[in-house]
Structure formats: structure tokens, C-alpha cells
Specification:
Number of strands: 0
Number of helices: 7
Structural class: mainly alpha
Order of helices and strands: HHHHHHH
Strand content: under 5%
Helix content: over 70%
Largest sheet: none
Shape: elongated
């Protein structure tokens, strides 16, 4: 356990853990919505089961890279006879400030990701997304829709159930 904590002390590992925390937080919120809000749309499923876990595993991968870098650093220090010190030492006031700042930054990123994902989900339900971004080959249908009696309706009102449920 001590070796694991020692390897996770590299700044790259810490950044990776923050990214993984963002992915985990967003996944938990999305799964909670999925479980308790009823049936979901295909777009919500993409966010919940593809995007957020990808962010989680990307962060874990970055942490592994940091652990490898810390292992190389430790071997280099041992070869030179220098005593190992963590890259971030909580015994130093300036390092505590850095750690606190990274914690605040991580919290802001988690909240920002969840809010951003919520807004991204709502954008996927817009007519602009459906007609212009997602279904580019459907240009004629999108243009026809703009001048039809249904122009005031969003695409999802007929084709996919609207709302986060």
C-alpha cells in the first residue's frame, strides 16, 4: 500500500486521478438519473455508458503513466544515492497550497462536467443538432421541416421522447 501511495505522488498521477474523479462523478450522476428518472433516450445512453466511462478510464490510464514516471524517478534517485521525497510533500506549506488548489480545481471540474453534460444532452434534443449536425445527409428533410406546419416542434417531440427521462 505504501508503494502504491508513493507511486501515486507523481503530479501526472494526481492529474489522472482528478480526470478519473470527473468521469466517476459524471457516471454516478448519469446512472442515478438513468435508474430513477425512467426510460432514457439513445443520447442519454451514449453519455452514460460511453462518454463518461471513457473519461474515467482515460484518467486511470494517465495515472498509470504517472506511476511509471514515478517508478523511473525512484530508481534514478536510488542509483544516485539520493533519498526519495514525494513530488508533492504535504509537510511543506507551498505544496499544501498546491494540493488544496488542485482539489478545488478538481471539484470545479466535476461540477462543470456534470452541468456541461446536462446542457450537452439538451443540445442533442434540439432541431439544430438533429437537422444540421447529426443528420447532415438529411438536408432536404431539415429544410422542408423549417417551412412545414411542424416547424415550431422539436424533432424529439415525434422521433424520440423529449426530456432527460
Amino acid at each position: 500500500m505504501k508503494r502504491l501511495i508513493r507511486r501515486l505522488s507523481h503530479p501526472v498521477s494526481i492529474i489522472g486521478l482528478f480526470i478519473a474523479l470527473i468521469g466517476l462523478g459524471a457516471s454516478c450522476v448519469a446512472l442515478g438519473v438513468d435508474l430513477f428518472a425512467g426510460p432514457r433516450s439513445a443520447y442519454q445512453a451514449l453519455l452514460t455508458f460511453v462518454l463518461y466511462p471513457t473519461v474515467l478510464f482515460l484518467g486511470l490510464g494517465i495515472s498509470v503513466v504517472g506511476m511509471i514516471l514515478e517508478k523511473k524517478r525512484s530508481k534514478r534517485l536510488e542509483a544516485s544515492g539520493t533519498q526519495w521525497r514525494p513530488a508533492l510533500d504535504v509537510g511543506q506549506r507551498s505544496h499544501r497550497r498546491i494540493i488544496f488548489g488542485m482539489g478545488v480545481f478538481g471539484l470545479v471540474m466535476v461540477v462543470g462536467s456534470v452541468v456541461g453534460a446536462f446542457h450537452a444532452f439538451h443540445f442533442t434534443e434540439s432541431t439544430q443538432f438533429c437537422g444540421e449536425l447529426c443528420h447532415g445527409p438529411m438536408g432536404p428533410q431539415s429544410a422542408t421541416h423549417q417551412y412545414s406546419p411542424h416547424a415550431k416542434l422539436e424533432c424529439v417531440q415525434c422521433h424520440v421522447a423529449p426530456g432527460i427521462q
